[in-house]
Design goal:
Length: 311
């Protein structure tokens, strides 16, 4: 058994979502810190071009996107579950809404000019400029559109009032009574806002939400130990990818299993990665690729939010 390896950086909100899931599952994991901005040569040796954070590695299998990572961690340790059986559809739907629509509002508020100045106040000269240029490239070419700050400010009270009411009437301490993926997906945008004094009140002004967020953050991050990027690549090279899922493949109109394809996110970070398509399941696509440093890898990507182009 290979221990999960998380490639992340501390201030990444989507990485915080996964770190909290690791804590909820009480899993031990290895931590590889990646650069916040490009270039990321060690990460790309594993992913083949996918640059977003976080990435989960288990041996020679590489999982991209926090939604798919959550499902892989669910398979790693089924209990406690992220998908309570009677609410699995609702949980997945709310989590997707939080990762996109809700996060879009939180990001607009968290990266308003005054908050950015606070966030980078102690950073080395030039780091803010590099971050702004990197994010401009990251959000270029996809369907993602930044939400205007004034629109986010106008709509935020509505979103928080709805969240407050849900928590006040939930049959338990979490969004659907017991903890689920929905809690971690809604929590990480609020964690981002709480990180800066300028935006903390946007969360803490809502008592039920603030108390719930404290409970979610209380799961912690599990047990982690550091690992170098070079060692993570060595682990991948020495490992053999896991067996493919025992489920049918659902192919597209102009691409099929066994074909060389390019897969890319549709919203942002749209740089494609190429490989042989091994599996196209209900939730994930699996590509085989080979890297001079990392060897033979299986790269796993979500089916939702990604496009496939046959080569």
């Amino acid at each position: 058994m290979h221990e999960p390896v998380l490639h992340h950086y501390p201030s990444s909100p989507f990485a915080e979502k996964v770190r909290l899931i690791l804590g909820f599952k009480q899993l031990s994991w290895r931590s590889v810190i990646v650069p916040r901005v490009m270039p990321k040569p060690d990460l790309l040796a594993l992913t083949g071009g996918y640059r977003r954070t976080p990435v989960l590695q288990i041996g020679a299998d590489v999982y991209c996107d926090s939604a798919l990572i959550a499902r892989r961690l669910e398979a790693e340790k089924v209990f406690p579950t992220l998908f309570p059986e009677e609410q699995a559809f609702n949980v997945a739907g709310l989590a997707a809404w939080a990762d996109e629509f809700f996060f879009l509002h939180a990001a607009a508020l968290a990266f308003q000019p005054e908050a950015v100045a606070q966030r980078f106040a102690q950073s080395p000269p030039g780091e803010l400029k590099a971050f702004v240029e990197d994010r401009a490239a990251l959000f270029s070419g996809g369907t993602f559109e930044r939400l205007p700050l004034e629109q986010a400010r106008q709509q935020w009270p509505t979103l928080m009032a709805r969240l407050q009411r849900q928590l006040e009437h939930a049959d338990g301490d979490y969004l659907f009574g017991e903890p689920s993926l929905a809690d971690f997906a809604v929590a990480h945008p609020l964690w981002l806002l709480r990180a800066m004094p300028l935006t903390t009140a946007l969360v803490d002004a809502w008592p039920a939400v603030a108390a719930w967020l404290d409970r979610v953050l209380g799961f912690g991050h599990g047990s982690s130990s550091g690992l170098s990027a070079a060692d993570a690549i060595d682990i991948a090279r020495a490992a053999i990818p896991a067996s493919l899922p025992n489920e049918p493949s659902i192919e597209g109109g102009d691409w099929h299993v066994g074909q060389r394809v390019a897969v890319a996110a549709t919203d942002y970070g749209v740089e494609p990665l190429e490989g042989e398509l091994l599996h196209a399941g209900f939730e994930e696509l699996i590509l085989r690729r080979e890297d001079p440093r990392a060897g033979v890898l299986h790269v796993h990507l979500p089916r939702l939010g990604f496009r496939v182009v046959g080569r």
